[in-house]
């Protein structure tokens, strides 16, 4: 049964989330929900309709959850940078050039290219 309906569920989840990995996780959740609720479903229930509706619901919840998680991470990063970034770099600045000159040339060049010249 799963192999017959998996394209419907993953396709629906992917259209909503635009994320293949998340769509696969959603498909797993939907089929777990189906396994848990199978005996309570009305015998007249059209399985494709139930799967589509449930996939849409789970996908929207996953998108909301992902959005909240990203927002919290951005806020935490901004708080950390605002509180610590300038004071931290100001304390390191006098020592940075000296430390760079003490590195082997290959390491110094790699760091300069990566962090100073991006």
What is the CATH topology descriptor? Rna Polymerase Sigma Factor, Chain: A
CATH hierarchy, class? Mainly Alpha
Strand content of the residues, in percent? under 5%
Output the radius of gyration.
Answer: 25 Å
Q: Tell me the span between the first and last alpha carbons.
A: 52 Å
| Principal-axis shape | elongated
Low-confidence stretches: none
Task: Please explain how this structure is put together.
The protein has 118 residues and is mainly alpha-helical. It contains 4 helices and no strands. It has helices at 2-17, 20-37, 47-102, 105-116. α1 (2-17) crosses α2 (20-37), α1 (2-17) crosses α3 and α2 crosses α3 (47-102). The radius of gyration is 25 Å and the shape is elongated.
Write the layout of secondary structure elements.
Layout: H1 2-17, H2 20-37, H3 47-102, H4 105-116
């Amino acid at each position: 049964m799963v192999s017959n309906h998996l394209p419907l569920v993953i396709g629906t989840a992917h259209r909503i989330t635009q994320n293949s990995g998340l769509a696969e996780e959603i498909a797993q959740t939907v089929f777990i929900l189906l396994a848990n609720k199978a005996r309570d479903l009305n015998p007249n229930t059209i399985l494709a309709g139930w799967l589509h509706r449930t996939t849409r619901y789970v996908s929207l919840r996953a998108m909301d959850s992902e959005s909240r998680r990203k927002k919290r991470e951005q806020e935490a990063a901004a708080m950390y940078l605002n509180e610590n970034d300038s004071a931290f770099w100001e304390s390191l600045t006098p020592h940075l050039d000296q430390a760079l000159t003490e590195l082997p040339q290959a390491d110094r060049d790699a760091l300069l290219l990566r962090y100073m010249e991006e």
